[in-house]
Amino acid sequence: MENSISPTVRQTVSPPRDLLHESSARPLLEPSISLIPESLEFSIHEPSQRVMEEPSTSGLIQKSLLNKISNKTPSWVTKFEELKNEQLKSAKENAMQLNDRLDKLEKREEAMLKTQEELVKKLEDANNIELQKLDVFKKNV
Q1: Is 26 helix (H, G, I), strand (E, B) or coil?
Q2: Which region, left, alpha or beta, applies to residue 55 given φ > 0 means left and ψ of -120 to 50 means alpha?
Q3: Cα-flanking dihedrals φ and ψ of residue 135, to 5°?
Q4: Three-state secondary structure along 44-58?
Q5: CA 127, 129, 134 angle in degrees (round to 5)?
Q6: How far apart are CA 18 and CA 132, in angstroms?
Q7: How far, in Å, CA of 69 to CA of 63, rounded?
Q8: Is 0.85 topped by the overall pTM?
Q9: What are the residues whose beta carbons fall under 8 Å from the beta carbon of 55, sequence distance 6 or more?
Q10: Which of 63, 42, 61, 60 is nearest to 51 (CA)?
Q11: Which tens digit of pLDDT belongs to each residue from 95-113?
């Protein structure tokens, strides 16, 4: 029984040899770009003045790079702004056209009301004439 347990114990204690072989066969990739800027790399024996001087120039460089990056807007933003401006312009033009149409409709409405008033006046005159004729007819009968 101990013989049957021993292979499992051996496996739990150490990883399989294939796994060790695979991981050791792969070369470790070192980053080609140093993560620490050169201005911050210094040895213990160097004077501290160099450390004080270098960051100020690198800080200026970093600020100028940030300004260059922040001044550039992505192309989709400029296209969006152009489309937005075009839409606003067309909306203003449409609003002006609608206002012109509304003004024309109001003028037509005023003209129609004036014509209706004239027609009503003529009908009243015609009605008065008919009433007078009726009165004359009643007197004669």
Answers
A1: coil
A2: alpha
A3: -65, -45
A4: CCCCHHHHHHHHHHH
A5: 95
A6: 126
A7: 10
A8: no
A9: 39, 40
A10: 42
A11: 999 999 999 999 999 999 9
